[in-house]
Amino acid sequence: MNLRSRSFGLLWIAIAAITLGFYGPSLIVAHQLLQTACSGTHCFDHQISPAAAAALRRHGLSLAFYGNYYTALAAGFAAVWTALALLLTLRKPNDPLALFTAMTFVTFGCSLLGVMNAPAAIGDTWAPWAQLFNNEGFLFLFILLYVFPSSRFIPSWTRWIAVLLVALEIPSTFAPHSLFNADNWPGPLPVVPFAVLTFSSIYAQIYRYRRVSGPVERQQTKWVVFGAIAALLLFFAINAVQTAIPSFDQTGSVAWLIVLTLVIAAFFLIPLSFAIAILRHGLWDIDVLINRTLVYGLLTVTLAVGYLGGVIAAQFILRILTGQSSELAIAVVTLAVAALFNPWRRSLQAFIDRRFYRRKYDSARTLSAFQRTLRDEVELEHLRADLLHIIHETMQPSVVSLWLNEEGSRD
Asked: What is the number of structural domains in the chain?
């Protein structure tokens, strides 16, 4: 282990130990608080109101069940992120990026569900420490986006943003009423730091991908971007359902617990994609995964819209012609959509390949044309020339040779 990786290793062990040391007691306090209804103004974030507790009892559930379920979710969430952190540490003990990512996993996994705010609900002394532990996960995540996947700050100016973040974290946490804390800034200014972090990290990844990264690093970036986008899309879809159905937005309700479970499952995609990218396991499978996701995502959306539109249109026409609706129209539309599945899937596949995978699409067309040549060509010399041309077009080697056993020749 070199000096740099040893420094990251010691830092990761120290921060992970402190974070987990605070998280354990916080989880116990949170479990106790969640089994009681919030009756005052100084409550733990996810304590439920007496009205919500009564609603739980109407469903045959108790506050004890709610407290046990939420605590188990929080502990399981932190355990998965910590397990992935340990996996990275064991597999890449000399890689500073893997060690920093592992540190990020532990801090972010312990902070996301707000468990570390629980001690602050029973004493103001713990409030700054709870805020510090909650913030460090997001702080390390943004820094990770500045250095992933090469472990270097690219562009170089991102290092100064990282230094500024770390320098302001402690005074803003332990002096919450000072100007170091963005919440005290006037007007819309409090959103500026988060906006700067978000856009600068996105810009850093785009800049790195287009101008700096090699083939392997680009595949690593694709994995992380795919995981993040998939998690965010699932989160926004779940949030849309939660907004549309009021019962899903009531803290402590059965529906709310289901939504929370789905959100946690969606966020597991983020550390999983980072782990795959850093360990380089199945690294080159991401192109196939993105391709299939685009194809079947568009296929699902277009067929669903076509099916609903077809049913509505068929029923509307039947009402005009006969004055009543018919189940036969629904059956006909269903059969039509089923018949269109494979042809439409092939059309979407061709469109995606042509638009986003042009080289693959051109190679496939070239090989398809060569298959037709094989059926029709009888001149061996012409076939040899066509084969060498195909290899040049699809694989672009620096040197190509063809050995024909019958003639003992070499080209």
From this structure: 3
